Fold each of these.
Amino acid sequence: MKHSAGTDGGAWIVGRDRELALLTGLVKGLSSADPATERPGTGVLVVTGSPGSGKSVLLDEACRTARAAGVRVLRCTGCEVESGLPFAGLHQLLRPVLDLAEELPARQRTALLGVFGLDEDVEPDNAQNPLLTSLGALTLLSDLAARGPVLLVVDDAHWLDVGTLDTLAFVARRLEGEPVAMLVAARDQSVPAQFAREFPLLSVDPLDAASAGRLLDLQPEAPAGRARSRILDEAAGVPLALVELARAVARDPRAARDALPLTDRLEAIFAQDLPALPPATRQLLLLAAAAETAELPLILSAAAPDTTPADWHPAERAGLIRIEDGRLRFRHPLIRSAVYQSATYAQRHAAHQSLAEVFTGDPDRRAWHRAAAVEGVDEGVAEELEVGAGRARRRGGYAAAATALERAAQLSPDPADRARRLVRAATMAMYAGHPRWVAEITARVTALTEDPAVLAEASLRAGWALAVTTQFEGSLGYLLPLADAATDDNPVLALDALATATTPAYNAGESAHREKIVRIAERVPVQEDDSDRLWILAGTDPLRHRTRALALLHADQDDTDQDGTGGGGPSADEDSGPVRDRPLSQLITWGAAAWLLDETGEAVRLLGAALEHLRRSPTAGANATVAQALALAQYESGAWSAARACLDEAYRTAAEGGLENVAIGAPILGATLLALRGDADAARTAVRRAVHGVDLPTCRSLQVRAHYALGAAAQAEGDHATAYDRFRAVFTEDGEPVHFHASDYHLADLAAVAVRTGRAEEARAVLDAAGRRHAEGEVSPRLAALVDRAHALLAEPDDAERHFRQSLARPTGDRWPFERARTRLDYAEWLRRRRRATEARPLLSAALEVFENLGARPWTERTLAELRAAGVHATAAATSGQDPDLSELTPQQLQIARLAAAGLTNREIGERIFLSPRTVGFHLYRIFPKLGVTARTQLRDVLPDALREVPGA
């Protein structure tokens, strides 16, 4: 996603690249000395959008751009209280230049100044001549434009007086050939008739989910967790609503627990029509807002007996609602909020009571309305909510289940029941991916009970809540004592706590924590399902525990197959269909462990199957962590476009839920892809934003990945000195790894830039220290190949070849195509310098194919240069492989293209990614020209192999 700087106060205009490009083009067309420069239409653009969509912000940016380019800006803003004053808007627009009216022809001058009451000698007939008035305005502007280009900016045109609108439309139709452009902004439902048909329209639509999330991230106190999700839902992409609701929650975080508070600015927009409505209409709107259902018969049955369908008409005429086919829809979610919050407590209480009486066939809704109408505690209603939470959980609605259980706890008269329900709510909130919500809930449990089992589960959930942020020490402070105490009496709980603790221990990288986890795990007896132990072994030390972990990984899969719950153990050539039948928890555990053990192909299949399962039953937290793990495995296996799509999903869900570790890590991996593809500036910017405010030394895995992304960006620009500093920073001064697992994968990168900066000796010391560590465990084939490459680069000239050959001879090396391609490139360079160009050419050709397919431009250019030096007339492919074409697609468009290529219909695609079939068709219309195809049957031919197969399609 792109974003452009612009608004006052140093804020950002987010997700408006198309709009900014059109406005900038219009301004540049004015300021350009080249008369052939194109402008949109005739130099008039009508900007439309809903209230709060950001029209004024875009106009502000256009004004700034124009002034910076030396364009004169005249501006007026419609005002409701002046809409009845003839020519008030025109006077506001022309007032700064009315002194030029003295140069107008007499009749035009008299007519123009006369409508403003500025000519004492005006003749009444001339003053009322609309043609002369409009012609005078046009002539004045033409005279002004003779001195330099002019931009006319008209905001809130729907509130301008008719005389001004008629004059502006007259001028707009006659701007051809004049260095004058006009921007007119109006609400989408209220575009003045004078500008509704003749002129090009620019619709400022609601922000998409990614842009809305980005705008929230840019707020001084960015919301997270439940509050963030509610803001995104309520604001529905309206920028003003996003900003105002974020500020309201920042002022009072507790306010988001029940209903988001409307600020004065939002209430002025969304509730302004309510006071004028008849009482019966307001009662119906309150019932509709409280019911949160679109079914008119239910709402009407809860209303007063004398209510009729005609009572809806005033709300329809005011544009607050729309009724179609017996269903009601509020024009915007915040209108619903405004209706509900403008009612008194007694009115809301009565509405919920009435609704509870009519929802007899829907026990979940009936329970909620009964709960909303309860004063104090009520065990009966609490039990109804708890039963409803169970139904929600079985449907995959974990957030709804957590909300119901939390409300049930509030209504519970017995503290023990309250504590039990809170712990269950915390568990559901964890599955929903809201760590801050989990922390809030578990913090209330300790004051309610002394039950060891309840307190232990609360500690487990509290530990998870901190584990997925960056508060690793706090997380381990909950989890390790819990595991230590439970090893004898509750070994399942102990393993659960240890497996949860392994994630923050891995990310923190501290050896003491990892060693303690292993010691406690050794005391836990072997369990029937011992998959947690697999993750503990792989996550604490994949080098020393590799043999045991691999045995568990393969044994677990073999056991599952024999039980009939899965197919054979997945291999490089197998379809992932049988894998999907395995239990979700096993898919995630095995997939994550396989990634750490460099069983990358298995990791892609297992995690891909897990993510497909989670998408069918959305759980944001699991989606974020699994999507990021899958993206890492896809990146390493060379499926860079697929990784990019997964990263977008991971970041979006992590940012919504407050999973800081993923919200930081996903952009860092995205920055790495940008760097490797040659966009160094964007990569540095992405890293800088991702790690802002993060204490990286406490998050060593992220620290190493950030250093690598920045090093790769420097390497892409040929800045080997900076690249060396970054790659060297992933090791300590004495050559030890900053992170026990992540650092060693950059030994070859360090060696490559060391030889170019004259620091080979220092790099050799780091490599030698790594060799001593590796001797204490079992090195994976992938890491062994990288170490071979590092030795080859740092070896004496006569000794390098055997290391190159050894690296390329490893039979599994093609599973990591980018790494093998770089080894081929290095070896080919070594051969060419020894006048063995014939041997170098096939290596260079093989490397070039990989780099082009991945879109790795810096590496493609370097390989082409080597081929030319080796006597081959080589140029870049007409298209740089499949990926550069795909880089034109947004992550959502890429997902739609994959599903369409797999044969899914628009309706089937929409059901999987929660879009309407019409919206899917719109996206395909945009996708086809980007990929150079004309039919969906051609999509399969242009997608890379890694993207053609879609699990479950």
Note: The two ends are 28 Å apart (CA to CA).
Amino acid sequence: MTSTTDTTAADGLAGEAADLLRREGVTDARFDDYSRHLFSRDASMYTITPLGVVFPRDADEVAAVASVAGRLGVTLTPRGAGTSLAGQTVGAGLAVDMSRHMRAVLDLDPEARRARVQPGVVQDELNAAAAPHRLMFGPDTSTSNRATVGGMIGNNSAGSGSLRYGMTIDHVRTLDVVLADASRTTLGPLTAERRAALAARPGLEGDIHRGLARVLAENADAIATGFPDFWRRACGYRLDRLARDPDFDLARFVVGSEGTLALVTEALVDLVPRPARTVIAVGHFTSVPDAIAATGDALELDPAAVELMDRTILDLSRQRIEYAPLGSILRGDPDALLFVSFTGDDEAELVDRLRRLAKAWKANGHGYHTLEAVTPAQQSALLKVRKSSLGLLMAAGSGTRRPLAFVEDTAVDPVHLVEYTTRFKEILDRHGMEAGFYGHCSVGCLHIRPFVDLAVPGEAERMRAVAEEVRDLVTEYGGVNSSEHGDGLARSEFNRKIFGPDLYAAMQDVKRIFDPDDLLNPGKIVNAPPMTDHLRDAALPPAPPLRTRLSFEVVGGMRGAADRCMNIGLCRKTSTGAMCPSYIATRDEEHATRGRANALVKALSEPDPAAALGGERLHEVLDLCLMCKACKSECPLGVDMAKLKSETQSHYHDVHGVPLRTRIFGSVRTLYRLGSATAPLSGLPNRWPVLRRLMERATGITARRPLPAFERRNLVRWFRRRSAPAGPAPMGELTFLADSFATYTEPGIGRAAVELLEHAGWRVRLESRGCCGRSSLSKGLVDDAKAKVGGLVGLLSEGAAAGTPIVGCEPSCVLTLKDEAASMLPGDPRVADVAGRVRQVEELLTEALDAGRIALSADSWPAGRRILFHGHCHQKAEVGTGATVELLRRIPGAEVVELDAGCCGMAGSFGFEAEHYEMSMKVGSDRLFPAIEAEGEDTVVAATGVSCRQQIGHGTERRAWHPVELVAAALAPRDPDGGGTGRR
């Protein structure tokens, strides 16, 4: 427990550090409690709260940080994406985040096949820069969409392709570094003359060259005999490699040193040719041992990779919308899959190898089916799940019982893998532990993660016992304790026994030579604390009681929902999916789902969590969350930040009161009804800029974005006054949810949907009397939202026959009934009934088209057009966009392209808020606006969400149609500027 005196001393030291950093010109540094907590964790089971966090902009600032640390005797822990699994990137001094500003590809030479990069560049971003030249960075980590090259250098990362491409150490040419004394140098291959000149220099750099020569000479025998024979190693200092290197390459020596020897500020790395083609054989097996036994046949055919996935991960993938497509292509119910990849430029030759493998497996009795995935479309579902194996396995945890990384990185020669894995499992069985199995059979590395609850007394000791037995087992087979994840806090303690006392002492000497004052990431590789120190779950105090307005159906309630985050960092990806739009725009850890979840864990662990939830600093952390809900589906742990933010906002309002603008946005249905009733007068603010400026000053609603235009002839008036179809309704009755937007601002969408449903044989009951409460919920007005959704649920339950479908056009409104209603009204049987009846309107229309109840014309204006479709974030998160895409594909001759463009940035009221307008536009400008602007004038843009359509219109000056409008227009030939249901 930290004493008051210790806390006061730390605060004083933090203040002194902040002052010195400012004097040195380092301005992006944070010392508040929340920032420190966010950087106290990585993707491991450990936590150490740093003194502060620094975000250097260049090598000069890194040197300045090192200088300040040296003057104060403060340690430094370099950090990239913070995805380390063994605790390498947590430490007690200054956390140095290289990923925020130092993330550039500085130069790329395609002829030399080399790139010069800063340490914070993400692997996929480097590969994107190299792709036009058909090049790539060889090591292929599963975390390539957020792992930084600096982090890969620190760990000596490898990945699935290491059989062909080796490890990071094999691809580093030179490193620009800051040494422990804040001096700067470049490490790389040396001539004998240059090496002698450096050894003659005064200062730390000369000490390093003289000292390393001495260590190599004095420990030649230990170095020659003490290292494990297996090649794939990410443990200890690579004295063996240095000893036999005629170029005395210290760049490669530093690779894998986990930031304990130098701070990397720039790297020159090799690139490799990118194969033009990849084909994948997916073997189906009835057990993990059977799958591993089939590896030998695969290795005989020169594969690029052989990857294992067990039932645990397969079953978890089937439960998630994001990964569900995999289940549809598998045969039967396998206990294990073996993914064998063949890469090259000749597809026919690759397919021949794939089929020879299938034939060999069949002849040798390995497995019961081989799936051939030849095209990118066939491979996408497979690769998505394979790269997400870690996250999916983590999702199997409950509360503080988690699959932990402490024996997950061992490797042995593949010829021993079946026997080794069998004995490994016997150790787990003996200790009563379950585990998930996945990894790289081609190189003998299986990532086996036992489930452990470190909050339970005695579990840490049981974990240590397993770690020690596995350490001895892997040593027996001549393998390595860490093959790509590094030593960190989880394994460094065991290096003395693994390498022997003499070789370990030589490694300690290396650390003293490079870092005499032990400032650089101490406690990693050598001189480590016990692996059971600094455990995250054991350090977390019991959650104080907190009454929440929403129901959190997980172990640990609201804090348990936030603490599901295991920091694997998928929310830091920047080029695919929607999670996390504010991180993509800011590259700031606190604006990623992970940062927000960790901030909430801190608040909910305070003695008075209700007061902490009302704190201003926490409010800042959550402020840029767009509540897109992408994290609910894309985060493998299913952290639902939108729900957590709604609850937090409600407590903030308890403390600070409810602002006027919040009340306005929470009353959107009432305001829209009034706007429609008073149209066209309600449109005056859009025509008179002075009114908008006054409105912005009074309410904070930006004047830079047009307000919705209200229609006097709204959907309700149209529905009441029209002549209803006189014929029979063979499909029965359904309820159409008249949301505020399809009713009062875009009634053409509602009319199109109603007419199409009636064409399809349904009798439509229009429900326009209630509100789903979505707008209130999004502003933290949870009590108001509960009242609204309760009223609507009651209306939808009145007089409706069992199973009567409920449909609507606005995904966020309709899906509130499927998702949030249960959290707002737990235990209400009407909620479950209503949720079970909710359907997407696109589903019913597609069924009608396929059954011939509706026919579309090939002569209509949408027919034969290219349709660019952008799905609503809530739709993607809750039910997926498949039904909408399928409906659009029913338009004759249409070429439907679904954008992977993330969140549009509008997010309901977010884009209307003056302080968020720029952020909203920045999010839209990331991928969505450029994708639309790249299209020709004939391309039709479609979007299901009203916010998406507003943002597209404002950001690109292109009209976005709701899909039902396009389908309605396709009922008969019609010009897009004509009348009828094809025009709003």
Note: The CA atoms of residues 440 and 681 lie 67 Å apart.
